Amino acid sequence: MTDREQDAKERLLEQDRTDSRGPLTTDTGVRVEDTDNSLSVGERGPTLLEDFHAREKITHFDHERIPERVVHARGAGAYGHFTPYEDLSDLTAAHFLSGPDVTTPVFVRFSTVAGSRGSADTVRDVRGFAVKFYTEQGNYDLVGNNMPVFFIQDGIKFPDFVHAVKPEPHNEIPQAQSAHDTLWDFVGLQPETTHMIMWLMSDRAIPRSYRTMQGFGVHTFRFVNTQGRGTFVKFHWKPLLGTHSLVWDEAQRIQGKDPDFNRRDLWESIERGQYPEWELGVQLVPEENEHDFDFDLLDATKIIPEEQVPVRPVGRLVLDRNPDNFFAETEQVAFHTANVVPGIDFTNDPLLQARNFSYLDTQLLRLGGSNFQQIPVNRPVSEVSNNQRDGFAQHRVHRGQTSYFPNSLGGGCPALADEGVYRHYTEKVEGAKIRKRAESFKDHYSQARLFLNSLADWEREHLVAAFRFELGKCEELAVRQRAVANLAHVDHGLAVEVAEGLGVEPPEDPGGARHTDTSPALSQANTAFG
Ligand code: HEM
């Protein structure tokens, strides 16, 4: 680690930490005489409004809750560091990937998606895997999940999707994502969810531990090198302990016996010095090969099978320090797909484009205004120098007369850097303004079938059992029936098996083009099982 990196890590460690060691004071630093008895008229009389200490103490308490995240509300986080194995500067200008001499501090938050902050850890759900790299070029967030695909192709559907998977609005049941009518209603009506639903019904949705969970950036992103050359990239995290899941019966028992099972495991393993590790891997596709696939690289419901593009290991992530304060750090951390550094850029994936809007927007509400990047866990270790002023909870005292660009009077930020700046990838785009998805996004079943074919017999048994269990909780018969009929497009045998366990009519074999595997050669391929 260089001196600068050490310095960055230490700055991160020390940012605004306090031990509250002195005698008790008010928020304005006045020493308190008594914090157990309110100021009152006589020993048995009414409490006085004049008791500023009691009012301040209770008022602070009254305001101690902030909105929980609209999704991924329940999570656990830890600090650590990332070190690349080799210099990737032929591919990307990102400094944190420029060689094994560069170690970058990180904060990682794992989460479930649908339940509220107090829900159980071991529910059947997707898990978030969000990594904040505090790089010398600014913060880079890789905001991923433990499954390599997503439910929908276009972010405009996200509010509908989330309304369908969250606890139902009339009775706020259930906290888990998978067992209710609204989810299956949405799934049956939106076949693009099919591939991800296979993952959700698999054991991947009940990880044994955060330490044994894979992570995926999901979208195709873009590496850009200093010459401006772009390369498509998919990100993978592979746990060094291997990928392990619970079985459903265990998961359900643990929900009752220890709802904090995954959170506790992460905390305790770090306290014991058994630091969890992951390897970062990349799948790289040169720009000129963009259209070499029978799916669209911009479609987040698809993997790139490893048989077609192998995963290249490029670095190692270690988590070695628990947060000091859950609320200050894990709860207030703000990840955002648009937090990128030079060398990492977006693609036109319509899901990613929506995310690039959504995270900042929601954080402005969740974290109370526009200065949340000044919260210690969000603060970059690189210098921040901008003309942003004012807003709720401004913590910096900016000196000087000006806060605009350009200016010649001093005080604001009058200059732009010559190098190290973020330059957006130059991409030529043209077309009519329309609301229509490309034909290349229309195959919703081939990769779902690929996933099914990659399963061992026992994994397939668990999948069928999960479909039966979860769909069995769905009360509306027509909704069950439609979801099973949709499965028949993946594999008629699977749909019949599920239908039998549910007591619904087995669907007809749809046959036809949609039932034909578009990539038979890839029957065993699956990025996640590599
Ligand atoms: C939160 C992943 C799609 C909106 C999160 C978090 C993760 C995540 C890991 C938790 C971050 C944390 O720990 O604080 C993903 C992945 C997606 C996806 C992998 C698809 C590939 C979307 C889409 C939208 C969206 C399409 C909106 C259009 C949000 C919002 C939050 C969130 C609003 C809460 C953020 C906060 O309050 O800080 N997502 N998400 N996500 N996501 Fe996504």
Notes on the protein architecture:
- The protein is α+β, with helices and mostly antiparallel strands and 530 residues long.
- It is 26% helix and 14% strand.
- Strands 1, 2, 3, 4, 5, 6, 7, 8, 9 and 10 form a ten-stranded antiparallel beta sheet that branches.
- A hairpin with a 5-residue loop joins strand 6 and strand 7.
- The model is unreliable at 513-530 (pLDDT under 50).
- Bound molecules: protoporphyrin IX containing FE (HEM).
- Residues 69-72, 75, 109, 111, 128, 130, 143-145, 150, 155, 158, 218, 300, 333-335, 351, 354-355, 358-359, 362-363, 366 line the site of protoporphyrin IX containing FE.
- This is Catalase.
- It comes from Nocardiopsis exhalans.
- Residues 1-31 are annotated as: Disordered.
- Belongs to the catalase family. HPII subfamily.
Features:
iron; binds protoporphyrin IX containing FE; disordered C terminus; 530 residues; 10-stranded antiparallel sheet; Catalase; peroxidase; alpha+beta; 13 helices; heme
Largest sheet composition: 10 strands, antiparallel
How many DSSP H or I helices?
13
Rg from Cα: 25 Å
State the shape. Answer: globular
Class computed from helices, strands and strand pairing: alpha+beta
Q: DSSP strand (E) fraction?
A: 5-15%
**SSE string, helices as H and strands as E:** HHEEEEHHHEEEHHEEHEHHHHH
